[in-house]
Known about the structure:
Blueprint: H1 11-24, H2 33-53, H3 63-66, H4 69-80, H5 95-112, H6 133-148, H7 154-169, H8 173-177, E1 190-194, E2 207-211, H9 214-231, E3 248-251, E4 257-260, H10 268-292, H11 312-329, E5 337-340
Antiparallel strand pairs: 1-2, 2-5, 3-4
Helix pairs in contact: 1-2, 2-5, 6-7, 7-9, 7-11
Amino acid sequence: MSTAPQPLAAPSLLALSRAVDALCQLPPEQMGTSRKKHLRALEGAFRRAMEEHGLTPDAYDDLATLLGPESVNEFLRLARGGKVRGDGKKIQESDAQLRARIRAMEIVAQHARVPFERPEMPPAPAPAPVVPAPARALLLELFRGQVERSISEPFRVRFLAMYGIVLDTGASSGTLANQHVAHLARDLSTVRIQRPRQGRMAEPPPVEEWELSSATRDAFNAYLPLRDKLTRPLEHPIKHLWVSLEHNTRILPDGTHIQDPPGLPLKPRGIQRVFSRAAETLNEEMEKLLEQGDAPQYGTAGAEWEPMPTRLEPLRRAVDDELRQREDEQGGVPQVIVVRGRSA
C-alpha cells in the first residue's frame, strides 16, 4: 500500500464540491434527480479538466475564478473535444451535454452567489413537427367508429380515452401516469390534472380542472368498465386511472422473474408505449382505408392525411399550442379552472 501523500485539491474544486453537496441535499421538489446528476457530473468534469489538462492559472483560486469566463471557455473547449468525460470515452460531447454543463454552472453560481457570465449556448435542436388538427380529428373519428361498433379490442378502448384527455388538456405522459379515477367528475364532465414539476420550481404546479369533450366522455364510458374488470381481481385497490391490459414479466436484480397481473398502474414509459403501439396500428389502418376510399371524413373537404408520430410529445405540443392560442384570442382568459394552487 502506497504511503505517498495525496495531492491536495485546489481551493476552487473544494468550493465547487461543497456547493454541489449542498444542492444535492435539497429535497426533490426543489432539485430534481436529473439536475443533481448533472451537478455531480460537472464536479467530476472540472476535476478532470484541472488535474489532467490544466485550466487558466487563476482557476485554482476560488469558485468565482473557476466559473470565470476564461476558465469556463477553456473547460468547454476541453469538453467539446471529449477530454473531461467520466465514462472513459474520448468522443466529442453533444450540444445537449454542453447545454447541461452550462445550466449546472448557472445553478452552482446562483447558489454560491458568485458572478457568472453565461457563454453562448450551443443551439437547441429544432422541435419535432406537431400533429396537424385534421390528422388528429381523423384519428379520433376512426377510433370512435371502432368503439361505437364494438369491434375494438381493449387497447383501442383504453387509447381512445387517453387520446381524448390529451386532445382536451394537452397532458404529457407524466401527467397521465399520475391521474387517479377520483380526478374524473362523477358525470365525466370534467377532469382534474396536475402537470409535473418543471426545473427548480419551488412549489408544485396548480391542480387544474378541464371540461371534457363529448367524444372523451363517450370514450370513458367504454374504458371505465374495462378498467374495473381488470382491477377488481387485484388484492389491493388501484387508484390510478390508466392501467395495464396484460401480464407483464419483470426481472429483479438477482435474476428472479416476476409476472405482474393486468390492472396495475402504467408509468410514463408505459404510457409512451401505448401511444407508440396505437400510432403504428392507426397509420397502417389509415393507409389501407385511404386506398379503399373508406377513410373517415373531417369537415366538408377531404383532409390531407399525415402519419401520426409514434411519440406523444408532438401531439401534446400541438394541442398545447392551440390551447394557448385560444386563450390569447379570448383576451388572456385561461381555458381552465384552477381548483388548488397558484393560478397561471
